[in-house]
# Entry
Amino acid sequence: MTQRKVAIVTGASQGIGAGVVDAYRKKGYVVIANSRSIKQSDDDGVVAVAGDIRDREVADRVVQIALERFGRIDTLINNAGIFIGKPFTDYTPDDYRNVMGVNVEGFFNITQPVLRQMVRQGSGHIVQITATVVHQGIAGAPAGLAMLSKGGLYAVTGGLAIEYAKQGIRVNAVAPGVIKTPMHPAEKHALLDTMHPIGRMGEVSEIVDAIMYLEDAAFVTGQTINVDGGRHAGRW
# Structure
């Protein structure tokens, strides 16, 4: 009997994460879905594991459940993230700890044990959700901690792709612009539309489409795809 493929998705309860879970289920994968307050659904192909990815014990539990129940991990989507936009001198130590804790420490906590398993398997695919602001800052929209944390994920994507290429593991990233999710209230949408050359915010489905492309693109590794309405290209 053919083993079912298994994906782990962090930040899976809403927005991009929830869209990614749905897409992998439609692709026939079993999904281990993590977020701080996620609840188990009626879909027995989705295993909800609640907890804060900043806690190494939570990350280890996610991996352990995947292996105990299904014996493998084929894909990891590092989607969990926090964004706090304010002038750099206004950030507090708590802001720093929260952003770096989820965006960087959370990435480290889950990616390290997943990579160990993928090395044992001789195959796997990891995708980070970074941010297009890493490439193109915007006057009047400060995002220093996003640049600091997501910039690290952008850099490590290429490094890990090279480090693990010969072991059958691909590592890529998707860098969204501003995406229409519950994070952005409707009254701000008109302003946020203007932050993209195309003239609108992105849709969750457009980020999911990029991830699904990378999933099937067996000759692509070390790549960051900007899904940002052209923002990364420069001033407009």
